[in-house]
Design goal:
six-stranded antiparallel sheet; 22% strand; five-stranded antiparallel sheet; alpha+beta
Amino acid sequence: MKFSSFQRLSLPLQTLLLLACTLPILWALLLFDLHRLDHQARTLSGAQVDNLARAFAEEVKSSISSIDLTLVELRDEWQGGYNDFSQVVSRRQAFLEKDIGFQVAIINAAGNLVFSSVRSPSMSMNLADREHFRVHRGLAFGDRLFISKPVMGRLSKRWSIQFTRPLIDASGNFSGVIVLSVSPNYFGRFYNTIDLGKDGSITLARASGEILAQSPDSENAMGKAVADAPFLQPGQAEYGQYEGRSGLDDIERLSSWRLLPKEEMVVVVGQSLDTILASYRQQRTAYFSIGAAISLLLATVGYFLLAGMRQRAIATEALVDSEARWKFALEGAAEGVWDWDVRSGEVQFSRRWKEILGYADDAIGSHIDEWNGRIHPEDKPRVLAELESHLYGTAPTYNSEHRMRCQDGGWKWVLERGMVVSHTADGQPLRMVGTFSDISQRKEAEQLDRERLQALEESRRALQQAQKLEALGRLTGGIAHDFNNILQTLTTGIQLSLFSVKDQGIQTALLACQRAVERGVQLTRQLLVFGRVQEAHLKAVHLPRQMQEIHSLLRGALPSNIEFFVGMPETLWPVRIDPLQFELAMLNLAMNARDAMPQGGQFSISASNVTIAVAANGLATGDYVHLRVRDTGEGMSEEVMQKALDPFFTTKVVGKGSGMGLAQAYGFASQMGGTLTLQSSKGEGLDVAIYLPRSLQEAPAAAPAARAAAPAARSRGRILLVEDDTLVSQTVSPALQKAGFTVDVADNGEEALRCLESQQPFDLVFSDIVMPGAISGIELAEIVRSRFPAMRIMLATGYSERRVETAGIRTLAKPYAVDTLVTALNEELYGAEGPADAEPARHVH
């Protein structure tokens, strides 16, 4: 329609035509953005419930694994003929009560209840009709864990889930069922740790749909089944999402599900669509209100604009410019507006544009430099490039997010949008208009989200690191325990041979074997740096004296182009440490320094007494010896230093070492009750600070030169040797007999108790700590202290996760020398005087 024809129309008709052109665009934009917000809300919620479903699935698998392990161990106890099975169950219940509250029942092959942890033994009941009995009868289901659907207790009137395994006699025949009953509420505890909003729910069900547990409203869901869920369809993937209305409470939810194929279960986490879309619906109302207001404004402005056009007969080109300028102003909806004459550099900034930056209306001029000079220096190159890209036709519009300096000197994040609305005949830009929005709150929210994600990732890495260290400690501790028993056998055998062999050549060979065993002892103790500290290895040490002993070892580890300095005053406080672990830590730090200084440099070790007045870096307040180990090597970057104490991280290439030197030193410091910190930067060397707690016990004087072992003085007394390793007892027992003791041997704690109660007189019980069975060495010591208070007790260990808490009990570290053992036994029986004139008291019970 030509302008002249349009002018001849009535003013109301012109207004209607104008609104017919603009309102559809406005509402299309509003509806499109509303659709985007709806999709965004559903996507974010979908990611949340999917993550929660994954976490819930892992929680369920872990719980079922713990329950099955308990079930198998209880079955072994029952079939092993343990005298008081109820006591075993009670111990299990006491141990697991904080995690799993359960009940145990035994059903014989006829279906009769023969044991229950909650029923009187005199009450009979036949459970042959129960699903979990019928499944196992005849062993068609095999020796597998079966998980029943929820059943209502016949007496308790409470719902429970039955975890069962068959009982199989020695002939391989079915002899009954062992049942472990768990309340469905146990699986609902995950719900209490998360926030799904109103009407959210989690469900644990069989793969066939029967509900095992649901939170909230668990009671209402028992005995019912999930209906019309996608995972019930054959051929479905192991996880997915769906929207639907629950058949139990008629609430529409977005749900994420994960199948557990091995357990034949499915977990479902659902969030109410009302909760998901609550924010969206509020935004929708606001959008409709704004759209209506803008529509009314468009109608009003359009009417008066067209009226003015009639009166003033503005030229067509001026009308196009004005219409484009107003279009951007209206789309800005109360945001700042600017109008730039590209040729002259003059810019008209709206009042709102200035208010966003905190300026009064007359505080900013009208030249482009007013805008250019307020852009953040870091953002300016990018912003100018984006502007130039639009001015010369590369980009259809100008859109830029950047920081602008405010009147108070601070910075605000803004969003600028604009476009060129007129060009010269040859296409050069003449005029550009746009909007100016404050997006600081959005940027702060995005930064907060990034920080939260980073904190979550750091927590995950910390947990993974702790699990790695725990696994490594358990592995090395187990190896050390078994290897120390082997070394104990070799040590005792070699020393017995040295006592009796006179041939010089054979003695030389045996002494070489003994030195090899001592090297094995050192290697074994090095394994324990990531396990629990062994009290038997700890000694009060004077560090200057200790450094003198290892000075030549450290000097030998460094090449001649590295200068080595040690500065330790004699006034240093004593520390209680494992000397071998200290030697290994210093050697590792020396070799790290050697690798960091291939062209030479300086390596120094110094120490001082410090008092920590305020707890920091994991150190409690108190007195410490501060070791400072420094080199002038290549140093570390911040990224490498954050991972340097991880035993599974290394920067060394294959063949250049394990990369565990710093991790070992950190493990040593932590085990001793202190800590290790690093300070470095690339090219500035490494400064390692080790803090070791002051020992209240004074360090002993330097030991005299070692002499060849000789048989101990003739001893007397009856010893009960408790040792589960036959090789150890077969060598230690003859050694003690040769020293003059009468020795009885027990293989475990239970056998030792029977010996103590058999009316035989014993003067002392010498027991290993880690033994199979229900009674360890520590528990045996507590029993002896309680029931036989006059009897002496002494322990030995190759490695133990438990500490000896009972005061006054001596512990020897394996492998121990025969003379060391005999001396310790004599001191326990007779004190420092020895057995020459003493006669041990006999303890008969």
